[in-house]
């Protein structure tokens, strides 16, 4: 397929996606059922645009015959297979939470078109709040990708900006949800249950559950998303908590919002690392690399776990690659000597030309 041809297909696909989003927005109050279906179609088409840009064959389920593609005689892959396919494109990493948010939309859509929509006719307001929340979060995750894929979607950036400002107004529906539970949150906090701001919907509704020492998993009662955090008591002893989440962990410094104290990344590493490099052990110590974010030497031992200080993934396991002899969070492939790890290509590739 020549490049002009590809651009034509791509434009039509993106315009179709935008059209579905516009329709979905206009229906959110009047016809919520169709709003769900159209929203999901919009997400699906934008994800497909990414695949089409890479290679039209990635879109096809089965026979990749170009003449059949041109005549429209083909079946595209299912929604649920789009994310795994995108992840095969070099440089594309789709986080678990993003995948879950899209899966939730798809599940709801499938239930409607293959079964029926449970309309809570006696509580229209709660139903609307629920649908709007799913879309608000789904859009939040999609819009991050849209911004990242600027080179592919750039001629439509003003359309996406408009869609974004309309969907951001859904926050009013989330507020309805929050108003209903805020007294309960206040009560729980009195009983020493901890809460923090949700990194996705921004409401102060993420209930903290301790994993280990300062490491928490937080579940938002508004948008139902989960995220981990390192919740560090301010080193200046002001009583404030510095929340380090997947949203800010890649930054080089973190501020206590209570007293403005700033903790540098190196300082944080020193503070948390339970197995630091010393002059006696440096010779034996391997880098611990993180395959989830693709960065080297970013993982520390933290109590009984290993935690990545670049993306906050953690595991109780590290393993050493038998080819590059560096450690990897979560383990290495069984035959690492031959096939390598996320950070090397293995012995077979090294000696390919021997
Ligand atoms: Zn939330
Ligand atoms: Zn402080
Ligand atoms: Zn990482
Ligand atoms: Zn390796």
Largest sheet data: 5 strands, antiparallel
Q: What's the helical proportion of residues? A: 40-55%
Q: What is the N-to-C succession of helices and strands?
A: HHHHHHHHHEEEEEEEHEEEEEEHH
Rg result: 23 Å
The hetero compounds bound to this protein are: zinc ion
Number of domains: 3
Distance between the termini: 37 Å
**Treating each run of at least 4 consecutive H or I residues as one helix, how many helices?**
12
For the secondary structure, the number of strands is 13
- Report the principal-axis shape: flat
Provide mean pLDDT, rounded: 91
Low-confidence blocks of residues: none
| Structural class designation | alpha+beta
Give the strand order, joined by hyphens, for the main sheet: 1-2-3-4-5
- Percent in strands: 5-15%
Structural features, described:
There is one protein chain. With 354 residues, the chain is α+β, with helices and mostly antiparallel strands. The chain folds into 3 domains: 3-169; 179-272, no CATH class; 288-350, no CATH class. The chain contains 12 helices and 13 strands. The chain has a 5-stranded antiparallel β-sheet with strand order 1-2-3-4-5, with no helix packed on it. Helix 2 (32-54) runs parallel beside helix 4. The longest helix is centred in the N-terminal third of the chain and has 25 residues, at 3-27. The structure holds zinc ion (ZN) (4 copies). Residues 290, 292-293, 295, 298, 308, 310-311, 313 line the site of one zinc ion.
